[in-house]
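Researcher:
Attend to token order:
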Amino acid sequence: MKLIARYYDLDASEPVVLMHDLDCAEIGVKENDRVSVTGSKSTVALVTCSDTLVDAGTVMMPAPVMERCGARDGDEVEVAYSSKPDSVRSIRRKMDGERLEREEIEAIVEDILNNKLSKIEVSAWLTALYINGMDIDEIADFTKAMAHTGDIIKFDRQPVFDFHSFGGVPGNKITPIVVSIVAAAGVMIPKTSSRAISSACGTSDFVETFCNVELDADSLKRIAEDVGGVFAWGGGMNIAPVDDMVIKIEHPLGINPRAQMLASIMSKKLAIGANYLLIDIPMGSGTKVPTIEEARSYSRDLMDLGERLDMHIECAITYADQPVGTAVGPILEAKECISILEGSKHPASVIEKACDCAGIILDMAGIPGGAAKAREILDSGEAHRKFMEIVVAQGGRADLKSSDLKPGDYKEDIVASKSGYVHAIRNKDIVAIAKAAGAPNDKGAGLLILKKKGQRVEAGDVLMTIYADNDAKLRRARETAIKYPPIDIEGMLIKRVSSVNVRR
């Protein structure tokens, strides 16, 4: 069917054209069906049908679709029905709980990359993985397919070590400390990190407060080989790009299928050429991994997956029943992280976790002493010197100090209403308060937790301090803290139970 192409301004994440209901009926397409659009070239797009937004005889399309079909505004184009890609059939098979072959998985990944699958179809794929899962060989095929949708970095310097955390626990700011210790020991660790998806702060969110994290693959390779370490945002490079596309669809669904999660982690590590990988699995209430049994299960799957990818993997199951350290939010976490590298002995939880994780990597590299050696490198100032080398290599200041970093100008203390001991701290409520304050987009937003589990609290003591960049967000965070108080305080006596009344 011949139609006149008309441009319309739409920033769509998938190729879409707008057609009149009569023209849709003539071609035999319905809402979200596919059509081929041919000018000097040909492309496929999804259809939106309307009897008011577009005139009969025309097809409205955004600039990317116009470019791909080789047409300009006012040109005549050929529009015809286009069948669904074969990968849709494979998605249905997974929805039925069937095992997929490598070629089927590769086709699904390739079609996601090339926008041949709609968001609805990708959502169906993620739902199928959430319900029916994948076996370890399917996950390995999925991982390889995602890795090969982007750049594969090959380092001249070998071997390549890497570190990754599952996340899920607020305040987990150890990555720059781990990388600095490991690199100071002469071990190359080109670390790519993520931004926050559902948390109050990802590693890249706080690292970018003091240096550039948006590196291309060539810059990452050069800095890592020259300095030994790097703190880069993975999303700024063409590393497993289909993973980032899937995450954007996954987030509104509120699901994180196990197979997708494992393939997401490992595809990026495969793309960066890691030979040895330590994975931190924070385990505790309110995290992605609430029980030790689940943590061990993930560990087994990851190590099995590593064998199939020719990568040596070890896992560290870490305590996560409360935030790591005291700071949550970009600038606050950066300040706490750098102060430890400068020589601060607090918070002990951050230091212990960072040195334990760095120590495992040193063990993997054949450097004796493990955690003790890591602590020695930290205490001696070697880690801080290496940290500054990396910061300068990534465009940061050579005279950077933790005291230079200032949180939001608006702050409020949340105080204890009664005396007792901190019985529990709910991670999800801490995250909700920090996000209400504006984190991670507002770099100065977040909170300092001044009382942790087991500590004695007197009525009126400050439990935490909320920071924000404006008064409205501070009020919103305070209201969230009042509605969902994250810190439980109890006395040693929980309840008196008595069955005997004594008469006098």
